[in-house]
Design goal:
D-Maltodextrin-Binding Protein, domain 2; alpha/beta
Length: about 325
Amino acid sequence: MAARKIKKSLVCMIALTCFVLTGTTVWAGPVVLKFGWTTAEGKTDPYAIIARQFKKALEEIAPGQFEVQLFPNRQLGDEKEMLEGLSFGTLDSAVITNSPISRIAKSFQVNDMPFIYASEEQAHKVLDGPIGQKLMKSLEKQNIIGLGFAEGGYRQMINNVRQIYMPKDVSGIKWRVMPNPVYIGMFRSLGGNAVPMAWGEVFTAMQQKTIDGLEIPIAVIYSNHYYEVAKYLSITNHTYSALGLLISKRKYDRLTPDQQDAVKKAARKAIAIQRQMNKENIEILIGKIKEKGMRVNAVRDPSSFRSKVKPVYEKFRDSIGSELLDSVLAAVKQ
C-alpha cells in the first residue's frame, strides 16, 4: 500500500515538474470537445451529419486523443447562445448557421444574399478558397476559430397558404425568418410579411398558426418533421445555406500543435463527406416529403425572383464590405 502511494506521488510530481518547466498543459486523458447544434440528430439532418463525421474523422486521425461529445436539439442553447459560449470559451465546438454568425461578423452576410450562388459547386469554390478563409479569419476577433463551411443545402419556402410559383405568390404570407436583416429585407422585397423568430419557437408557431410559413433546407424539413405542420413546399433555391464548423479559440489554443493540425484535417475530411452525403440525400428526401403529403412544386421564373431582390444587395453593401461583395460577385460570374 505504501509503495503504491509513493508511486502515485512520484507521477504527480513528474507531471507538475513538466508543467512548471515547459509551461504546457499535461492532459490527464483525451481532450473533451462538447459539440452542439440546434436541429435533430436524424440520419439525414445536415447539422447532425457534420457533427458525426467530425467526431469520426477526429477519432481516425488522432486515435485516443479526443472525446467528441455530441449535443443536438438545442441542448447547449440556441445558435446565438452557442456563439456566445464559443466566444467566452464555455462551449468547445459547434456547427452554426451562417445567418447567426453574421450577427457577430457582418461580412458573413454575403453568403445570405439571395440567389448569389447558382450551384453548390460554385459555393464550395468560393467558400473553400481565399474568400472563405478571409471570412473565417474575421471570427478570431470574437475568440472563435472557423474550421470551414459545411453545407445545409439550398433553403426552400414552405407554407400553409399557397404554392409559390412567382414573386407575387410570396406576398401577404407571414413568413418566419431568422432574426437577420438580410432575410427580413429579402422577404419584404418579395412582398412577404417577415416575422423574425428563434428556431426553437418555430414548430409550435406553425402548429398554432402564429406564422404561415418559413424557409429552410430540404433535409431540415424532413428530419424535423415540418411536413406535419406545412402543406406546401416550393423549390425556390433562394439562399445557399452555409454552415460554420467552429471551435472556441480558448479551447483550440490549449491544444498541442499536432492536435490543432488533427482538428483542421478532421474538419476538412468531415466537410467533404458531409457535402456529398447531403447531395445524395436531397432527391430521396423530396420523394419522402411527397409521400408524407406535402405538395411540392418548382418556381416558374427564377429570374423574376432575382430581379425583385436586387435592392437587397445594395442595401447591405456597406455592412458586408464593398470589396468583399464585389469579389464574390466576380467569382460567381467565372
